[in-house]
Amino acid sequence: MKILLHSLRRRSWLTARRPQSHLATASDPAVMSATSAQQQMNMFQAVNDAMKIALETDPTAIVFGEDVAFGGVFRCSQGLQERFGKDRVFNTPISENGIAGFAIGYAATGGTAIGEIQFADYIYPAMDQLVNEMAKFRYRSGNQWQAGGATLRMPAGAVGHGGHYHSQSPEAYLAHTAGLTVVMPSSPKAAKGLLLASIRSKDPVIFLEPKALYRSAVESVPLGDYEVELGKARILREGSDVTLVGWGAQIQRLQKACDLAKEMDGIDCELIDLQTILPWDAKAVEQSVLKTGKLVVSHEAPITCGFGAEVVAELQERCFWALEAPIKRVCGFDTPFPLVFEKYYLPDETRNLEAIREVVRSSR
């Protein structure tokens, strides 16, 4: 680490401060005019566009990781090295621990580090760097130094054929660590805005990208520079009977469950996408549950100690006297992620529909 920091300080452009333009938000007139034009994008294109804007607006920003020079496994960094050069977009050795350590060291000098872990399943060798260094860097120094310019992107979740080493959702491990921000988008537009906000955040961010959505999720995305506020949930559909909470690729399954509940049973569901896992928007969920009296939380990760357990614990404290039925969790099973039996493992729209029906029955 000492050698790394010493070599970075010798290059003046690396230690330049980030420009004030990164403070602009989508509500600023200049940004509003820039984002008026839109284009159909899938999620990997939206992520690519966010990194392009980050590199254009911040001369200290760099992109690095395994195979990012040619675009990466999912092509999220495609074309960036050709545009910004080998000094700013480059491959690293196959070492998640090294990628995380490099991000911390570079951010500590004032630079903006955008690292990629090729699969979230392989973040575990870097947990010492994330938990004991990245998350605690500012705290242990009494705010004399920090690694707030570090963002680590990583594909996460099921993809249909990944098996137990390429399908895991590790958000609960990461959310247990004070000092980190953990983000998981559910759409291309949200992915771009959340990634730009993450890269410009004053806190280190773990950015989990649902790999199943890289090509399957497509929508109109603003072409300009904009941010989606971290720590804020979004209500995807309003309803009066049941509150559903999810994040990432699970949102698509919950949307289908909402449609089925309305069509088959006349149940009106309110669907909330957390977007940020840590810190999460408990207030938004509380306000919804106070209205509906019922809550279903759903995620891909195993049910035991999954982040859904945190949501349930917090909401029963906030809304106990307003609850009309026990809160339900619909999650992955407590097994290694199965390849052949993935369709049985995933909490699909059918399992979620049954949970919706159960909480409604229990309330009568």
Automatic annotation (TrEMBL):
Annotated GO MF terms: branched-chain 2-oxo acid dehydrogenase activity
Enzyme class: oxidoreductase
Keywords: Oxidoreductase
Source domain of life: Eukaryota
Reactions this protein catalyses: N(6)-[(R)-lipoyl]-L-lysyl-[protein] + 3-methyl-2-oxobutanoate + H(+) = N(6)-[(R)-S(8)-2-methylpropanoyldihydrolipoyl]-L-lysyl-[protein] + CO2
InterPro entries assigned: THDP-binding, Transketo_C/PFOR_II, Transketolase-like_Pyr-bd, Transketolase_C
EC number assigned by the record: 1.2.4.4
Pfam families in UniProt: Transket_pyr, Transketolase_C
GO biological process, one term: response to nutrient
UniProt keyword annotation of Oxidoreductase present: yes
Regions crossing the membrane: none
Residues spanning the signal sequence: none
SMART domains linked to this entry: Transket_pyr
Coiled-coil annotated residue ranges, if any: none
Cofactor(s) listed in the protein's UniProt record: thiamine diphosphate
PANTHER family in the cross-refs: 2-OXOISOVALERATE DEHYDROGENASE SUBUNIT BETA, MITOCHONDRIAL (PTHR42980:SF1), 2-OXOISOVALERATE DEHYDROGENASE SUBUNIT BETA-RELATED (PTHR42980)
Protein name from the UniProt record: 3-methyl-2-oxobutanoate dehydrogenase (2-methylpropanoyl-transferring)
Organism of origin: Fistulifera solaris (Oleaginous diatom)
